[in-house]
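Proteins fold. Shown next:

***
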Amino acid sequence: MLPLQGLTPDALAALGAMDPAEARRVHACVQRDDFDFRGRTGVRRQSMEWLRRSCHVPSLEVVHEARSQLDPFVKFGLRAADGAIFETVRIPLERPGRYTVCVSSQVGCALACRFCATGRLGLQRNLETWEIVEQVRIVRRSLGEGRVHGVVFQGMGEPLSNLDRVLDAIRIFSEPSGLAIDGRNITVCTAGLPAGIRRLALEAPRVRLGLSLGSAQEDKRRSLMPISGRHPLSSVLDAAVHHAQVTGLAPLFAVAPLKGVSDSFEDGLRIGQLAMDFWKRSGLRPRISVIPYNSIGPEDPFERPDTQALEEFERGVMVGGYPPHRRYSGGSDVSAACGQLAAREARSC
């Protein structure tokens, strides 16, 4: 059975059972939770009969909903039919009634970044397209009068390791007859897979790129992010320059300084110099987001720098020639903040 929420109108029409106009009507009804296999959807009888035989609208079980006491962030623990559990986060924007959804693309992750809770799980499986889309649909149902303004692929998993399904989900998110999320409000974040970055530029040119740096020093980055052993930062930045030149979109560079590891003035200086070099090569100014480190649970090998150290790191970025932006990372009291997603609470339900 085909999951309807995981199909674009074009994909549905290409199956040959209905014309494009019918496919758009079905897609619109499904995405706004107004589809009934027995009801009227403006499609021909034979088309509806085919839908009954061939398609369904599967669901995910919400096994945990954790509301932060510090801010309006909400984390949802979701269980698939095979028992796999993953998480998604509802992020409030400054404009009232607008939200971004932080979605997962995999159950677990194979990259094993040392500062990420998801990396401790290992990779269990990729999420299907409909499972990615359903995360946004679940969050949307929780909003009442609000609306989903954007999506960020920064939950569990490495999006570029599941790129076929991520690209399909992006097409569904952007479909005007459905969720109608502007591609410029969708960001795909990666630890750094050059081939995936280049393909993302080609197939989703309106979508923004986020790059987790870890460190601008190659040996230090490799110790924090094992993927850097296969894909050095230089090759990742080459791909990011290509992405910027193809799309005309400046990337987001994210870095979480670690106490005594990557929080020095010199660490910041290298980040600033890297950003300046990127600007010169691409003609676009990246945004540097400095994210205060969030604990990833028992036996965490790292700590958040104190305020003085973090300010010294940011001074180094400035001296390197580039202004950083201190990013607020919400929901830390319910393990919903950057790097903390690991479905711990969901497992106990």
Observations:
- The radius of gyration is 21 Å.
- The chain is about 35% helix and 20% strand.
- The chain has two domains: 2-56, 61-347.
